[in-house]
Amino acid sequence: MPRTRKLSLAAVAAGALALTASTTLSVPVAYGHGYTNSPISRAKLCANTTVKNCGAIQWEPQSTEGPKGFPGAGPADGKLCSAGLQQFDELNDQRGGAWPATQLTSGANYAFKWHLTAQHATTDFKYYVTKQGWNQGAALSRSALDLTPFLTVPMGGARPAADITHNGRLPSRSGRHMILAVWTIADTGNAFYQCSDVQFASSISKTGTDFGF
């Protein structure tokens, strides 16, 4: 083969490689993933096989990742627990109230716990709870939630530890509710959404019961 032909093919190959690298580097990737242990989330209950017939979430409870900006943006109503991902739609099904609920004391101090399978630069963690009298038979929506978080933990772009605890005061509630925890990533367009079923009582012997880690 002539020398000029060899050089031409080499140039084409180098150009293709550069284009591939450029394309790869231009795609934003979120390396952070995680789930809530306390109060335990639906995703983790499925991973623990405490709850059956969960679909794909049982293998990756850390992957409920969707657009950030909640409540003004983010996943659509009715898709909050799955972060808008169709493959995790089982998380949005209320199952007639059959999801196990963590027992909580209204107005008490509580330790909210996350396990992060990979850490990522973080804007903040926010916690929302359903309103008194919310529709427990419908998939979680913004209208069911108090859209002012009862706990906000700012991070300012720092990377959290793999296992983190946020201490805060629970809102005043009674009966069965849902807590939506939102972990907002600082340097991508995404956040992680975790839904936990809880039961508030005025006084119980423990502030919370987890169903495993």
UniProtKB/TrEMBL annotation:
N-terminal signal peptide: 1-26
Positions of the Chitin-binding type-4 domain: 33-198
UniProtKB keywords: Monooxygenase, Oxidoreductase, Signal
GO molecular function: monooxygenase activity
Pfam families per UniProt: LPMO_10 (PF03067)
Name assigned to this protein: Lytic polysaccharide monooxygenase
The species this protein was found in: Kribbella koreensis
